[in-house]
Predict the structure.
Amino acid sequence: MTRAPERIVVVGASLAGLAAAHALREGGFFGSLTLVGDETHAPYDRPPLSKQVLRGLYSADTTLPRHPDLRATFRLGQPATRLDLSERAVELGDGSRLPYDRLLIATGTRARPWPNPEEAALAGVFTLRGRDDAQRLGARLRGRPRRVVLVGGGFIGFEVASTCRDLDIPVTLLVRDAVPLAATLGPRLGGLIGEVARERGVDLRVESEIEQMEAENGRLLAVTLKDGERIETDCLVAAIGTLRNVEWLDGSGLQADAKGLRCDAFCRALLHDGSVAEGVFAAGDVARWPNPHDDDALVAVEHWGNARAQAETAAGNMLAGDASAMRRHDHLPDFWSQQFGLTIKLVGLADSADSFAVMHGSFEERRLVAAFGKDGRTVAAASIDSARWLPAYKAAIRERVPFPPIEDAVDQPHIRVQEP
Amino acid sequence: MSGSMLFEQILDPANRANPYPLYAEMRKVPVARQEDGTYVVSTHAELARLISDPRISSDDLPDPQKFRWTGHPVTDLLVRPVRAEIRKRHRPFIFRDPPDHDRLRGQVMHCFTPERVRGMRAKTQRITDDLIGKMRGKSRIDLVDDFSYPLPVTVICELLGVPPEDEAQFHGWATQLATALEPNQRGDEETRAKNEVCFNEIADYLQGLIKDKRKDPQEDILSDLANDRDGMNDFDLVATAVLLLVAGHETTVNLITNGMLTLLRFPEHGERLRADPEIAPRLIEELLRYEPPVHYRTRLALADIPVAGITIPKDAPVIFLLAAANRDPARFIDPDRFDPDRPDNRHLGFGGGLHYCVGAPLARIEAEVALVSLVRRLKGVSLTEDPPPYRPGASLRGPRHLRLALNGAAEG
C-alpha cells in the first residue's frame, strides 16, 4: 500500500484535467491540487467552437462550470516542458518545478499545422482547435469571405462547412480520400453525409489535394489543386487532423510517441520497458489504452465523453492506494456531431468493422440506426437523427452480442448485411 | 403471496393508497411473468434498459372494434372495416412507434418551444393566485376540486388554444378519455363504448376549432399545428390534440395533489419550501420519484427478448412499473425516504426513451408555482384524512379528493 498523496499535479487544463480535478475532490482528496495549462484560458468546452461559436450564436467564452469549492491552483499560460520521474517533478516554461505525489497527464492534442510553414503563415489560412482559433475564424467568417476552402474530410471540416453554409458563404471542401468521414463512419454513412453536404450547396471534391497556395502581400489569394484546377479563395481552413502533445515527455522514460502516451487498463502511464511509472496516470486525447471492447487493442480516443470518463477513472485510481482497489477504464467510445441539420451519433468504434446493416429507418429518409460488426459480433452503432434507440445498441456492444444484434424490432427494414 | 398474481393485487383499488409494499415484493423478480402471460418489469436497471429497447412496441392498444355482423352488407363489408382501419391508423403518438411516432412527436415539440413553455409561468401564477384567492376565509377545502384540477385544465386549454368558455366541456371529456390510458379499464366493453362516444364528441368539437384556427390563427399550439404546411393530417391533429389535453390534465393533477399530500405528511419539507422556494426544482424531482403521477405504462414485445435471466416471449404484453423502479434500493439509497437533497436522482417519473414525457418542462413549472404558492399562502393547513380517497386508476394514480382543514389563505 502506497502512502496517500498530498500533492497532485494535473498537466492539461481542459475537459479531462478539470473533470479529474472535480473527481479528485469528490473522491476525498484534500491535499494540494495544481492544474497546468499552456493556454491562458480557464478550462473551456470545445464542441460548440466549430458550431455555435463560429456561427456567432455563442461567444467564444465556453468556460466549463467549476465547483466553487474546487480549491485548485491554476498555472495557466504555462506549458509543461519536462517531466522528471526520478525527482517526481514537472518543469514549467518559466523554469519553475512542481513536485508531485501523483501526476495526471492530460495534455491532449493540437491541430496539425499546414505542412508548408510559409503557406501556413499566410493571412487567411486558419486551423481550428481552441477558443482563440474559433474567435479568429469566426471574425473572418463574419467579414464574409468570398469562398472558404476547407481541407480535410473529417468531422471538424464538415461541421465548419455546415456553419459556412448556414451563413450562406460559398464553400469548397477538399477530401483526400474517395469518401469523406469514412475512417469514422465507414464509406456508406460517410457517403450519405457527403451527399447531404452537396445538397446543402457544399462544393465537395473527393480525392482532391492542394498543390500550392497563391498569395499577394502575405494574403491568401487562391489555391491550385493537384489536378491543376485553380480556386480563388481568401479563407482556407486546414482541418487535417491532430498531433498529440507528447513532446515535453521526450527523455522522461515514458512510452510516448505520435500515437499517444501508452497506459495500462487502469490509466497508469507505462515506461519504455512496459512497467508502470509509479504515481503517473493519463487521460483524454493523449492517452493510448487497451480497449476491452476490442480485445484490448490499443486506442487513443479523441472524444468528449471519453475525456471525462477516463479522467474520472484515472482520478479514482490515483486515490486508490494499490492496484487491487483500482478500476479498469472500460468506457465504450461514443461521439456526436451536428451538421447540415443532422445529428450524428456513434457508439463503439466502427473503423475496423467488416460488416454493416441498417437496423431502423433508411438511407432515403436520412434517419437511421446502423450497426457495425466485426468477426461476427457487434462492435459499433451509428444513428442519424434517431439516437433514442442507441442505448439498446450500447448494451449489445458491451455484451458482444452476435451481429446483427437486434432483430424483429420496431421500424426495422429487412436486415441486409453489407460491407460497411 | 404468489408472484404470478402480484400485479392483480396492484390493480386492486384496496391497495391504491399504498402500493409500495407490493412493489417491493414485485422487485424480488425484476421481470416477472404473471398468470395471464403479462411480464412486469419493476427494477430500475432492467426498466432503464428495456425502455430503450427497439423490440418493445408502444402500439399495444387492442383493435378498435370487435367485428359484429349487422346484416347490412355496406356497413359490414365497407363502412366498419374502413372506420376501424382509420381509427387504427390515427392513434395518438403515445400508442405509436417510429417512424410515425417520431414525425408526430417532432411536430408537437416544434410548437412546444421552451419560450412558449416558459411564457406559461406568469399565466400559471395568475391562475394559481385566483384559485387560492377563493380559499380566503375558508376553513375546509378539497384541494383536488378547488385547485389541482382547475389549474392544469386552464393552463393546457390556454396553451392549446381552447376558448375559456369551452373549458367546462373539456373537463368531462378529459376525465372519461383518461380511462383509455388505464390499461385495466380500456378492455372493458362499456368503458370502450363510452370512450368512443366521447371521442366522437371531442373530435367533432376539435374539427370545428381547427377550422377556426385555420381561418383566424392565434398564438397557440393548435393554430401552429393546424397551419403547418408540412403538418399532420386532420385525424392525427385531432388525436394529438386529445392526447395533449388528456395528458396535460390527468397527470399534473396528480403531481400537485401528491405533492401537497407529501408536504403535509412531512411538514419539515413543507416548511423548508416555504422558507426557501429555491429548493422547489429539487423537491419536485424527488416528488416525481417518490409519488409519480404515472405508475406504469404498457408495451408489447415484438420479439423474444432475453433480460434478467429470463426471456420475454414475442407478443407478450409488458408492463413498465415505473413507480416501483423509482423505489429500487439497488439504484436509490434509502428509497422509501422522501429526500429532496438526493444526489443523482435519475427517476423514471416522466418515463424514458422514445416516449419521455413531452410536457415535462410544463409540468415542472406548474408544480413549482402551485406548491410554492400553496405552502406560502395557506394558513394553518392540515390533512383531515390520511390516506385520502383515491381515484380508481392504478396507472394514473392519485387522490380523488384531498380534504384539508385550514385557517384561510394569506393575500397573494
User: Anything to note?
Assistant: The longest strand of chain B covers residues 297-301. Chain B has 17 helices and ten strands.
